[in-house]
Write a structure and sequence with these properties.
Layout: E1 37-38, E2 47-51, E3 75-76, E4 79-80, E5 85-86, E6 106-124, E7 135-141, H1 149-152, E8 160-167, E9 173-177, E10 183-192, E11 196-197, E12 199-206, H2 210-216, E13 219-220, E14 229-233, E15 257-258, E16 268-286, E17 297-303, E18 311-318, E19 324-343, E20 347-348, E21 350-357, H3 359-371
Antiparallel strand pairs: 1-12, 2-6, 3-4, 5-11, 6-9, 6-10, 6-12, 7-8, 7-10, 13-21, 14-16, 15-20, 16-19, 16-21, 17-18, 17-19
Length: 375
């Protein structure tokens, strides 16, 4: 266990692959910060924009959704094909010193899909059993706009260490809690001195740019990309509630939220926190790809403040399978939280709440933006 965080840690090689399920001896743990959104998700627009070396396996694999795959028979012109980012073996300065120096390392630059405050990082070395890095470190910075790799690597860019150089294990989920209360836009992931990383996950809270949202005027105030968050849900058996506020339209059934079948007289629900206090004027409930398992009915409620009373803004309404339902509210609803109740069970693929920040909400978001040191 880590001495200061209580987060499980792993070091050393995993055993060579001996056949069968390659994940049978995979080392992992339940990390508390994974309840937050993955700021480095491709669905949010994240990307690995540069790396100093990717001889064996491409840097882009770091952010591929889902766990890494392993095919023991898959070899290419450069060697074993791995589902991750893998660099060549580093060498020393000459025959008298063939080993890499203590400072030698490889790096990759990651643009977060949504800038925010980072709560935890997972550096996953799945299937890298004897070819993982000896140690990793992670730095972060906040740079406005769309900087090039050269601009990010310039001497005047300030980087903050989120994960100091730390030994990691092969074929393991290496998790690190982060307590830097700052808003970041980019990461620099370092592996010392070389090796391979299968996946990178960066969990945190989105902190949107209030000037951008003010310029948009009307936007989806519950969307992940705009700072919304799924706080809780009655059931997460098949899929996470945060799927319902992901960007874009659902592309398949498990890209939404689906509950187990109820055998009682209750109903299922999701509770959300909005970007800030907002005035909601219209909403969408989408059941795309949920055909025999979509929710039968749904209602939506809003409350202002964590202790406010719930006010129903959309009464219980019949839903159709595989359909996007649009509703214009009779009167704007002001609140900081929203809740969708589905009856009796089933699922929805997306919830969208269209509106704008109130004057109070704009001030709240601007204050949080300033507190996180955003540029």
């Amino acid at each position: 266990m880590s001495a200061n965080s209580g987060i499980p840690s792993f070091t050393g090689d995993a055993s060579p692959y001996g056949g069968g399920d390659p994940y049978a001896d995979y080392r992992t743990a339940d990390f508390p910060f994974t309840r937050y959104v993955d700021l480095a998700a491709r669905a949010l627009g994240a990307g690995v924009i540069a790396a100093n070396d990717e001889f064996f396996a491409q840097r882009e694999n770091l952010l591929v959704p889902g766990r890494a795959e392993f095919d023991p028979e898959h070899f290419g012109h450069k060697g074993k094909v791995m589902d991750g980012w893998e660099t060549r073996r580093r060498r020393g300065t000459g025959a008298d010193h063939p080993w890499p120096t203590a400072d030698d390392h490889d790096w990759a630059l990651v643009r977060l899909g949504a800038p925010g405050v980072i709560r935890g990082i997972v550096v996953d070395t799945a299937h890298f059993r004897g070819n993982y890095p000896q140690a990793v470190s992670v730095e972060a910075t906040s740079v406005a706009g769309a900087p090039t790799p050269e601009e990010l690597l310039a001497d005047d860019v300030k980087w903050t260490t989120l994960v100091p150089r730390t030994a990691v294990g092969g074929h393991a989920a290496n998790g690190f809690a982060v307590d830097a209360e700052q808003r970041f836009t980019h990461l620099r992931v370092n592996q010392h001195p070389d090796g391979g990383i299968a996946r990178l996950r960066v969990y945190g809270e989105v902190v949107p740019d209030p000037k951008w949202l003010a310029t948009l005027g009307t936007f989806d105030v519950v969307a992940l990309a705009n700072g919304g968050r799924a706080e809780d849900a009655s059931n997460l058996f098949y899929s996470p509630a945060s799927n319902t506020i992901q960007p874009g339209y659902s592309r398949k059934m498990d890209d939404g939220w689906e509950t187990r079948r109820r055998r009682d007289q209750g109903n299922d629900w999701i509770r959300y926190q909005l970007a800030a206090q907002s005035e909601i004027r219209a909403l969408e409930i989408d059941t795309a790809y949920l055909k025999g398992n979509s929710a039968g009915w749904a209602s939506v409620s809003v409350r202002d403040g964590a202790e406010g009373d719930w006010v129903e803004v959309l009464p219980r309404t019949r839903l159709q399978p595989d359909t996007n339902h649009r509703f214009v509210l009779d009167a704007p609803a002001v609140g900081t939280h929203a809740r969708i109740d589905i009856y009796p069970d089933g699922g929805i693929s997306r919830l969208r709440l269209f509106g704008s920040l109130t004057e109070q909400g704009t001030a709240q978001l601007a204050a949080r933006h300033a507190e996180s040191g955003a540029q």
